[in-house]
Amino acid sequence: MIRSPVPPHQERMGSSELAATALGPALPAVKPVDNARITAIVRTYHDFIWRLLRRLGIPAANVDDATQQVFCVAARRVDEIAPGSERSFLFGTALRVASDDRRSARHREQPDAELDRHVSPEPDPEDLVEKNRRRRLLDEILDAMPLELRAILVLFELEQMTKSEVAELLGIPEGTCMSRLRRARKEFQAIARRRIARDGFTKVTP
After folding, report:
1. pLDDT tier at 7, thresholds 50, 70, 90
2. Confidence at residue 202, expressed as pLDDT on a 0 to 100 scale
3. Which residue of 17, 26, 73, 101 is surrounded by the most CB atoms within 10 Å?
4. What is the DSSP letter of 145?
5. Residue ranges of the domains in the chain?
6. Is the Cα dihedral 13, 17, 19, 21 positive or negative?
7. What span, in angstroms and rounded, lies between the C-alpha atoms of 33 and 72?
8. Mean pLDDT of the 151-162 span
9. In sequence order, which residues have a C-beta less than 8 Å from that of residue 187 and are 6 or more positions away?
10. SS3 category, 116
11. Helix (H, G, I), strand (E, B) or coil at 79
């Protein structure tokens, strides 16, 4: 007697078919993370981003977390960062982090010794008081400036970048860069005059 075939819905599945069903639809292969490149980016640009965030108004208590946030974004999007554009990508990310922080709260902090570690050697004891007074005034002036003017002043005056480097980093023509820098200097000087008249500080430059 010829046995009738088993209805399709009663057929048993092989072990390999069961495993495939349990796993669901085939997933695309995940591209391995380029850990070596991420490590190189962090080593090369960590101090630059730390100083930048601090000078863009991130308070000392939060600047380490903000720096980590910037590099976490870079790690997630490392495949999108063209070779040679790492600093530009990090700058743009840092600017967004600083902007978000600026919108969420207005911070008014005294500068702390931690910034000195990223900027210059520890000052002599006799110069410490005056140095802190000047830095406090500088931070107050920068904090009163619009972020786009503050950023270009920090890059050009404090980071000592050339106009071509700043223009490339900001993604603007050199002429626009210099025009914005002139506006930033005028804004800085106007705020400085008001602060000096109010508090009797000596002249300060960025």
Report:
1. low
2. 57
3. 101
4. S
5. 32-109, 125-206
6. negative
7. 12
8. 93
9. 145, 146, 149
10. helix
11. helix
The arithmetic mean of pLDDT across residues 29-36, rounded, is 66
- pLDDT for residue 126: 61
Within a 10 A sphere around the Cβ of 91, how many other Cβ atoms?
23
Q: Using DSSP, state whether 64 is helix, strand or coil.
A: helix
Q: What is the dihedral of CA 100, 43, 116, 189, to 10 degrees?
A: -50
State the pTM of this model. 0.68
CA pair distance 148, 170, nearest whole angstrom: 10
| CATH code of domain 125-206 | 1.10.10.10
Q: What pLDDT score was predicted for residue 20?
A: 43
Min mean pLDDT across 15-19, 39-43, 84-88, 202-206 is at 15-19
Instruction: List all residues 6 or more positions away from 166 whose beta carbon is below 8 Å from its beta carbon.
Output: 152, 155, 156, 177, 181
Phi, psi (rounded to 5 degrees) for 97: -60, -45
Give the tens place of pLDDT for each residue, 62-117: 999 999 999 999 999 999 999 999 999 999 999 999 988 877 755 444 445 455 45
What is the CA 97 to chain-centroid distance, rounded? 6
The CATH T-level fold of domain 32-109 is: Rna Polymerase Sigma Factor; Chain: A (1.10.1740)
Q: Mean pLDDT score of the chain, rounded to an integer?
A: 79
Q: How far is 53 from 86, CA to CA, in rounded Å?
A: 16
In whole angstroms, give the CA distance from residue 107 to residue 82.
35
